[in-house]
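We close this part of the discussion by returning to an individual protein. Part of our work consisted of pairing the sequence of a single chain with a tokenised description of its backbone. The amino acid sequence and the backbone structure tokens for this protein are reproduced below.
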Amino acid sequence: MRICASSSPGEVRIAVTGHDVLLDFALWRPDMADGVGDIYRARVSAHVPALGGTFITLPGLEQAGFLPDSEGLGPLTQGQTVLVTITRSAQGGKGVRLGARNLPPDLPGGSEPGLLRRGPTPLEQLARQYPDAPILIDDATIAAMLPAALHPRLTRVTSAFDSDLRAKVDALEDPVVSLPGGMSASITPTPALVAIDMDGGATSMDRRPKQTAQFAANRDALPDLLRQLRLRNLSGAIIVDVAGLAIRKRRALAETVETLLKDDPLRPRFLGFTALGLAEIVRPRVHPPLHELFHSREGQLLRDLRAQMQAYRGMPPNGRPVTLACGHGIMKLLQDHPDWMADFVRLTGRVLQPVMAQALPANGWRFDHD
């Protein structure tokens, strides 16, 4: 087992592998951290009894966080300062969720609002989950962003992802998942839930009765499918429509589902099968799901920057910049994140030159090649 951290402009892709299987995955965007685990001294904005909680103004954040009454701080008054930690990132159009329990006792004193301590990075979190796994990095800058305690586990390599691992990680952007036995599943996130539709495989060659063969095919495909919940960080309400089984037969898969979910550190709950035969799973929301990160404006631009980096990496510098024509929205984004351009130069030896293009839409861009 090993942890592989592959650097590209603006982000580090982190994959945990064992026996050629992708076991875990995380995206780390150092200058766009989701804030989970950050601890603040913050000021109370307003208590909202109808929502069962209090809005807290977090210094430096555009949105207020929500602290549920169940966190046990008692009655709070407007303007009061409290110690809170971010327990759920902003996602799905909702702001951050806060907690106030089990805070460390050695926090700095004082009364002024401010950020007191950063939460662990995604690479630190995975290093804790897999304490015996070596960490392969392909960029020395990664080491500089990690605590010294992890340095003995680091090994510098030319490329942290080989072609096979790169293909497995790239497949996480595809809503269709290939499963054992020729089966597949389509994953469709919606604002309310994540719908997963399993499609039958090549059971026509199976000489067993149809329902017996379909049951075995679904059972054998479920480990790979449910691992996708963790890899893609699918959260909230999740429904799974298994393939080809009569409703009364589906309930026999319940033990398999419950057993497979036990390995997930977020401890998802299996609620059983509905009257329509749909498996219901609830997985806690903590970090943003991958589809939000991938398909955001920032995520799509970083993906294109990574593709350009891979094309230029290893080529001798020729002194000519890589020109990125962009609309004014993308130009503003690059100005707000200068480290992305610095990363590009460091990783390719070529300057990334953004140029305003009036003909492009605000959030459009293209690479102009010689």
Summary: Residues 230 and 264 are 7 Å apart (CA to CA). The domain at 39-116 is CATH 2.40.50.140 (OB fold (Dihydrolipoamide Acetyltransferase, E2P)). The longest strand covers residues 39-48. Residues 210-231 form the longest helix (22 residues).
